[in-house]
Write a structure and sequence with these properties.
Rossmann fold, Helicase, Ruva Protein, domain 3, two-stranded antiparallel ribbon, 2 domains, alpha/beta, 345 residues, five-stranded parallel beta sheet
């Protein structure tokens, strides 16, 4: 009996090592929906390829995404379109200073007829959740959301409810306006697998956006091309993607260099780094790199996969000193130098 391409049975050679060629063939078949997803999202979204790939990486790696960018860069449109293409439930929560935890996770409501409390579930109970301007809500609301992200469950009253799978939180924050905001604590930001900074479209892309919105006007018809169960099966296959020991050492060296750059020939970065990336970054680089290999229809990770996700995995996990802030040095500059200096296997 022939196994399904999404089967999680590991193929091994007679010597016990994984059969990379057989694994790659399975992944080529199983990852075909990635191109279909890109095509469907492209019907409604012009450009922003990096943002779409970041969302797909988070989806396949089972990690949440924090997007930073000014309003109007299609962050909401991207996740709405992706949710239609994956055929899952989508909800949006606009974070404001008066938001309460119950507005996100739900609460107990007293039913007078039955003379008992019943559970009213909040918008967190969806496959894809957009937390718009997450830094506008106080810490208690942020914690309620981030606990659900970490535990994949919500407790309301005395009952605990599992969240639907797959579950993806896309949080956004505006880097320009900081009045009336509650910045996320570093420990909570660390729970996001990826933090992507969204840039403006090119002039050609912006002209196409203008043409589509002003001339056409009608919304593109996005068709569902994959089911939630296929995403869950793909996540298991992503973890099977082969990673050589040299790639593992490369990941560890990158993360170690953010903590003690002087041990890696970058002593000048020491006074600029308040604290380096946590072990969660090491795990994140590995799983995100495997997801990128899967998206490229490969059964093995190459250094370019790690370099492609390194900025989004590391940028929010490095703390800057006052000296770095005084010199207007950003995390991106530090990550770029570490990627340039650490030897690629």
């Amino acid at each position: 009996m022939e196994s399904s391409p999404l089967s999680t049975d590991v193929v091994v050679n007679s010597n016990g090592s994984p059969d990379i060629q057989a694994l790659t063939e399975r992944i080529k078949i199983a990852s075909g929906f990635v191109d279909e997803l890109r095509h469907e999202v492209g019907k409604a979204l012009v450009g922003q390829r990096n943002m779409v790939d970041t969302l797909l990486t988070g989806l396949l790696a089972d990690g949440h995404v924090l997007l930073e960018g000014v309003p109007g860069l299609a962050k909401t449109l991207a996740i709405q379109t992706l949710s239609r293409a994956v055929d899952v439930d989508f909800s949006r929560v606009q974070f404001t200073p008066d938001l309460l935890p119950a507005d996100v996770v739900g609460t107990m409501i007293y039913n007078q007829k039955q003379e008992q409390f019943t559970v009213s579930k909040g918008p967190i109970f969806a496959h894809f959740v957009l937390a718009d301007e997450i830094n506008r809500a106080p810490a208690k609301v942020q914690s309620a959301l981030l606990e659900a992200m970490q535990e994949r469950q919500v407790t309301i009253g005395s009952e605990t409810f599992p969240l639907p799978q797959p579950f993806l939180v896309l949080a956004t924050q505006n880097p320009v306006e900081q009045e009336g905001t509650y910045p996320l604590p570093e420990a909570q930001v660390d729970r996001f697998l990826l933090k992507a900074v969204i840039d403006y479209p090119t002039s050609e892309e912006e002209q196409m956006i203008l043409r589509n919105q002003v001339s056409a006007g009608a919304k593109a018809a996005v068709q569902p091309v994959v089911k939630p169960k296929d995403i869950l099966a793909a996540r298991k296959l992503v973890r099977e993607v082969y990673m050589d020991e040299k790639i593992e050492r490369y990941i560890v060296t990158l993360v170690q260099a953010t903590r003690k750059p002087e041990n890696h020939g970058m002593g000048h970065l020491g006074p600029l780094i308040g604290f380096g990336a946590s072990p969660r970054a090491t795990i994140g680089l590995a799983i995100a790199g495997k997801a990128r290999a899967f998206m490229a229809h490969r059964g093995y990770v190459i250094p370019e996969d790690i370099r492609a996700v390194a900025m989004d995995v590391l940028r929010h996990r490095i703390g800057l000193t006052f000296e770095a802030e005084a010199e207007e040095i950003q995390q991106e500059q530090i990550v770029t130098e570490i990627l340039d200096q650490v030897q690629v296997p």
